[in-house]
Amino acid sequence: MGVIARSAVLGLAAGGRSSVALAVPVHAATRGHDGPAARVLRGLATLAVLGECVVDKLPATPSRLVPPQIAGRLVAGATGAAALAVVDGRRFPAVVVAALAGGAGAFAGSVAGASWRQWAADDGPDALRPDVRAALVEDVVVLTTARALAH
User: Fold this and answer.
1) DSSP of the chain, one letter per residue?
2) Which interval of the chain is the signal sequence (predicted)?
3) Domain total for the chain?
């Protein structure tokens, strides 16, 4: 997969969990390195993603589509995509295009994720809150995508 497609897919994943936008380039950049610094970086990136997966399910967590949250996801998607392009050895023009693709992907992923959660929540009562059930499905999709991009 080319760097622009990977950037757009990373942006889509960042629309679901913004922390993956930075975790993927960290894991990609430290792949093959087993020193303490690389392990700490990978550990911190993984903790950030897992923490966001937990916080996302709290009732007080605001919608990802309100201005501060959507802006953060767009910045995360663009920054992560640019970092992924740099890790991939790309230079200036390709890095800018990757950032734009990552930002656009983050917007699309945010809207799609919020729409999915709303649709699933309207699906009826369940043992878990329907929104939590939908969020867990979203976690699986986002984390599987992030893992594929990092390797």
Assistant:
1) --HHHHHHHHHHHHHH-TTHHHHHHHHHHHTT--SHHHHHHHHHHHHHHHHHHHHTTSTTPPPTTSHHHHHHHHHHHHHHHHHHHHHTT--HHHHHHHHHHHHHHHHHHHHHHHHHHHHHHTT---SS-HHHHHHHHHHHHHHHHHHHHH-
2) 1-23
3) 1
